Amino acid sequence: MAAGPYSERTVWAANKEDTLLQSLDDVTVAFHKTSGDTHILNFLSTAIINVLTEGAETFSSARPKILSKIQMSSEDCSDAIIVATFLELDDVGLISPQAGRQ
Amino acid sequence: MTQKSNDPNSFLEKRRQILKLGAAGMPMVLTLRASAQQAVISQLRCAITVPDSFKILVDDTGAVWVGSDKIDEDKNGNLKPKQIKKFKENANFVFPEGSAPVVYRPDECEYETCDDDDDDDDDDDFDLLSHLSSDDGTYSLNDYLAGGGGKKDDSHDHNQCDDDGHSMDEHGHSIPTNSGCGYACYEYSKNYAVTPGEFVTEGGSWNLTGDDGLYLSLAILYAEENGNDGVWPGVSCIVSVLNYIGQ
Amino acid sequence: MEFQSLSVFSPKKVRDALRQGRLEMALGPFSMRLQGADKSLTSFLLDVYRDAPVRLCLEDVTDVTIHVRAPNFLRKYIRRQVIPDPGFIVPAVPLPPTLAPLALEMGLNLSVALKCCRFTTFHAAVVGSDKGCILISANSGGGKSTLASALMEEGYRLFSDEFGLLDHGNTVLHPYPRPVSLKGQSIQIVKNFAGVEWMSKTLSGTPKGDIAYRRARASDIASANQPLPAKLILFPSFQEGATSTTKEISKPEALMKLIPSSTNYHLLGEPAFTSLVRMVSGARAYEITYGSTAESLRITTELAEGTDL
Question: Which of A25, A29, A33 sits opposite C269 (nearest CB)?
């Protein structure tokens, strides 16, 4: 799981200069330039990256945008799974909490 | 392998499935580290945890009951028949004969013999397990289940002796010498955890052993029947692994 | 001076040029300067590289430089040994002079694996038809060379038995048709279907047991400047006597299997990622298991037909 603090007020962002995204079949493959790691993202993790690339968001402000991108309701896609995916993406460095903006 | 479809319901259904797997522990991001020699296969990483303790009761035909009622042993080490009966009545899951792999089935009961015994058939002593073992020591799950336990002979005619030369009760059932025999009980403690991927060989077949093997073989049966819609603990994880190994 | 087939030169001229470091060979995308004093090296080149284009003078900087030499002064004269010197430090086990050909081949492999940045390189055998390539990805000893040799007999062009060379610009694989390296039982298997005239002498006592080389055909070498896109990607697994299986895998999974086999993916980063994704997008990928060369050939041929190769 991610290191560092996380709260409802945490502002998350993805740096599009840092990550190269390409679609491949039903997934997105991502190359993180800083670490040299390569990732496969499913529709949820891709949506989170895309939303946060468009602008830094808290979890609450990002959630409806994420659900809209994946065309699902909150019944289908719980907060728990979105939060877990946020933390996974943070863990591998594809998104990060913004310092001083919690 | 699911067929691609332009049907929007199928598209959403597929996404719902993936999210269920995520809730079961499957990661949403698969990573190949810059220093890694091999990608981590996320589908094999999911783990199943069952918060409450439970038991799996297996009879000699391979029929299975899964529940949490108690079953104690008597002073001779046999399971108490009344508790067996109650366990079966209250079981959360029931699997038909032939469900449990042969290795987990107890020996058949010894039955009271009948005076009128003229039965001369001797069942061949057929060791299913060694017959099915593959060169690398792993077994196909289908091989496990192919043996089956055989159905009980219901064609009794309420005579005193059945076709096997066993005494029969008023219901036509063979009378075991010990009424608690013919059952094996496997206990799983609270927060029992298992990672199905650890039982998948490099060749993509199952290598099921120990008490974990019994749990997983039943989970696989359940998943094949019910898919992700079932309520068996960890079924999503099992479905994920089955999808990965192409079953 | 124009490049000509090595076979047009006399053994003496070749030997002298080798000793003096004046032998330049052009094969596929690489030019190579070769140097060495051992007779075994000269014989090997004249046999197995007979159709390779060479010139016996140095006119230009080359991509690769290999000097097969003694590891130190002492070993030049006493209990003689040789190592490949590609111009940078490599972990090379000293070998007896009779195995100088092996030292040369190892040195060439190391140079391409470690110093080539024009392409994304990965451990793979590659063969091609006129429509595209079959890329066979497996580690050393995984059976890719035997399968590549068998496919050559079916009319496929040898690109390489060791490296896939992926162009970053137009996502094609470049041929680099050096001799196919075969070990152990594979030697006899390939000898049986290719014919003894295509095989080098067997080198015994190597760190990997017996090794022999199946030389590339003149046509393979003549087509070495014709790259092609990958159409079929195979991940083979040989298990003696196993029942054959074929399993199509997804493009993302194929990508994740190819990346660890690359020798320079992490060095190159972005261009390697982009070109590998594009390559995988245009091909179908399969894991195959087989118990014999005949079976591997059958499976591959069937899969190739399915991808219009």
Answer: A33
